[in-house]
Amino acid sequence: MSRTDTLTVPAGHDRPDVRPPAPDTAALPAAPGEAVGTAGPAEEPDALAFELPAGGLDDDRRLRALDSMDAYLTSKRRHLLGYQATQEMGGGAFDLGRFMHHNINNLGDPFRSGGYKPNTKVVERAVLDYYAALWHAKGPYDPADPESYWGYVLSMGSTEGNMYALWNARDYLSGKALIQSPAAGPHYVRAAPGAGNPNAYRPVAFYSEDTHYSFAKAVHVLGVETFHAVGTEQYPDECPLAGPAGEQPPAWPAEVPSRRGPSGHTWDGTGEIDVDALAVLVEFFAAKGHPVFVSLNLGSTFKGAHDDVREVCERLLPIFERHGLIQGEVAYGKDPGTGEPLTDLRRRFWIHVDGALGAGYAPFLRMAAADPAGFGWTPDGGLPEFDFGITLPTREFGDLDMVSSIAMSGHKWPGAPWPCGIYMTKVKYQISPPSQPEYIGAPDTTFAGSRNGFSPLILWDHLARHSYQDQVDRIRRAQELAAYLERQLHLLEQEKGIELWPARTPGAITVRFRKPSPELVAKWSLSSQEVLLVPGDERTRRSYVHVFLMSSVDRAKLDELLADLAEDHALLARA
Ligand SMILES: Cc1ncc(COP(=O)(O)O)c(C=O)c1O
Where is region (Disordered) located (predicted)? Predict the structure, then answer.
């Protein structure tokens, strides 16, 4: 397994029309505008070089413009530390470059070839089968088996996966026709609330304050109500959480609080959802008759935290049982012939796992924890179950599978040159597409119409190149590097007499610390987050950045960053 993009041309791959990418080594000559070894960021390429005149550009100018972009990206790629995207593409660019000659489009459902034949759906299905097995879903996909998985390769990243999950859950929970309903027509029929419960088809969404901003966007776009919105509007004085002393009753928080840290506030907590607070909030809305949608994080955006999906399921199940959310009759329409109501039995809750980063490595971490001798590594602390395999006993309905959907980004853990990912659910939750266009020759079950057919090739190639053992080694390296960086930051604090606030959530592959100068932020593509140590008190504001220990990061890069931090004027000024 090669860790960088350094490519050697394998024998028999002598294709003159495919250029291997520039090697990612320290020996790479400095590109124009690149400031290797200094804190100065490489400049963005000159916009003038990219202006498009009516007559187009001659080859010389066109190629010079492209070279300048390549030089810029190469420099930035070598220094990317602040985002959870690997820059390691393996040899994929070389082997897959040939597919750039095709217009590939995976239009429509992945399990039907459809009318647009230049597609890679056969590869897409192989990738989905791989993740279905890793995430303990029943495969292969079988439209006649409600328990089997269904999913697709996303054209966006987990933002699309989260949005699809919310859409899927909203329609399922609000009583719209399922894909399997015999009378499902081309239009949605929303269930009318029964006389006894006006909230029966009004789902409420719960997610923690450490959740990615894509969720706030998704609820907005899809018109899903959060517990905050419903609570503030309908029950302004009834928030059941314990508020700060003196605030009686407390205001509804915008999101479910995360676990508090030693300070008693959440800024220095692990970033995991506060399961007690979640349970209290869910109980309140379940008692009012609302269906419940919960999204949990596996590798949260800033702290890399893993919500304990199993613990959440165990805590919420009795609440769901108490309030009749395990199963309910849903009238989703009327039989066009008889006018009789069409009904089915559905569960009234949905647990989604936003595994944008973590769903890529968590299965391998769990494999190593279960067989340390076999994989040659004992991870520090385990990672609880998080996937479709979580099954819990109920009093009335036997064993219940708890997780309804998972989203993962392809460009984060596996690695891809552009955003992509996976959305997965089960056939029994699939909703009927809003329209059935004959035009594409396949059911329009996905979010986008035209879909990226290149991404399945990228993901497939990555999976084919890496054994389970390789993946265990990748997550092991990431965790070891995270521990190394945290240690070195502590040492740097002592050496320089500066406060860097290093912190790492146990098991996370990210380390956070004090934000350095803008030059270093730009040089290393560091993303930042502000926190208030005391909520509401501006004087306690702190700015953090973080480093994600992706497979394209090595000790040499970290040592270069540490050397930069040791000389950083902004940090030294605060010594
Ligand atoms: C936890 C989490 N969810 C969702 C996303 C959005 O993923 P994408 O950038 O692939 O759309 C991210 C991105 O960082 C994330 O960290």
Answer: 1-45
Handedness of CA 79, 81, 83, 85 (dihedral sign): positive
What pLDDT, on the 0 to 100 scale, is given for residue 496? 95
Whole-Å CA distances, 312 to 202, 275, 279? 22, 6, 8
pLDDT of residue 181: 52
Q: Name 246's Cβ contacts closer than 8 Å, sequence gap at least 6.
A: none
- CA 238/CA 507 separation, integer angstroms: 37
**What tens digit of pLDDT does each residue of 318-361 get?**
999 999 999 988 877 778 888 888 888 899 999 999 999 999 99
DSSP state of 45: P
> Is pLDDT at 33 greater than 70 in this prediction?
no
pLDDT value of position 255:
97
228 within 8 A of 254, measured Cβ to Cβ: yes
Work out the number of other CB atoms within 10 angstroms of the CB of residue 190: 13
- Ligand 1 atom 9 nearest Cα: 157
Q: How many Å apart are CA 44 and CA 442, to the nearest integer?
A: 43
C-alpha 281/C-alpha 239 separation (Å) is 8
- Please answer whether residues 516 and 565 qualify as being in contact, where contact means their C-beta atoms are separated by less than 8 angstroms: yes
**Residue 516: partners with Cβ closer than 8 Å, 6 or more residues away:** 526, 545, 564, 565, 568, 570, 571
| C-alpha torsion sign, points 159, 161, 166, 167 | positive
Nearest atom (ligand 1) to Cα of 411? 10
Decide: 391 and 400 in contact? Cβ < 8 Å: yes
Given a contact cutoff of 8 angstroms between Cβ atoms, the answer to whether 18 and 95 are in contact is no
> Would you say 65 and 49 are in contact if contact means Cβ atoms under 8 Å apart?
yes
State both tokens at 97.
């470059």
Instruction: Compute the distance from residue 212 Cα to the ligand 1 centre, in Å.
Output: 6
What are the structure tokens assigned to 249, written together? 């009753």
Report yes or no: 478 and 509 within 8 Å, Cβ to Cβ. yes
Instruction: Count the residues in the chain.
Output: 575
- Distance between Cα 489 and ligand 1 center (Å): 26
The span from the CA of 327 to the CA of 397, in Å, is 8
Percent residues over pLDDT 90 in the chain: 77
pLDDT of 225 reads: 97
Q: Are 458 and 92 in contact (CB under 8 A)?
A: yes
CA–centroid distance, residue 200 to ligand 1 (Å)? 31
pLDDT by residue (tens digit) across 258-295? Answer: 999 999 999 999 999 999 999 999 999 999 999 999 99
For residue 294, the number of C-alpha atoms closer than 13 Å in the C-beta half-sphere is 30
Q: From the DSSP assignment, how many helices (H) and strands (E) are in the chain? A: 15, 14
pTM: 0.90
- For 371, other C-beta atoms within 10 Å of its C-beta total 12
Distance 309 CA to ligand 1 centre (A): 18
pLDDT tens digit sequence for 412-432: 999 999 999 999 999 999 988
